[in-house]
Specification:
Length: 149
Amino acid sequence: MKHPIILYDGYCNFCARIVNSIQRHDRKKRFRFSPLQSSFGATVQGRLKAKYGAVPDSIVLVHNDKVYIRTDAVLRIAAIIGGPWYLLAPLWLLPRPLRNALYNLFARKRYRWFGQRETCYLPPAEEDTRFLTRREDLPPRRPAAAPEA
């Protein structure tokens, strides 16, 4: 796969901000993007569910035919972008279960802290061609939110 692909929760305001930030800092335009709610996102989620039994609902990185989730995805994205994002590199020293426990806590609270959108986030087509999904490929409305743990 030529370009790493970031799958994000299209309904999450925080996730939309992160995608915008990655776009600004990815000066070489390496990354491609798609909401998890897209057909491409659903395909990747199906593969993850078959392999791991669980499907993350916030961020997935597909790079070099490998799929990274949670903090592994975040830290690999930071490493690819480089620059000040390397400040996240020391987090690799934390054990994965601890990193992912903190990530999962944040992921569960992100809608409460940052809110959610009625429709999936996508920039206007003329603004960025790095998105693999178009509005017509997305579900029209957000399904009912799952109860918070």
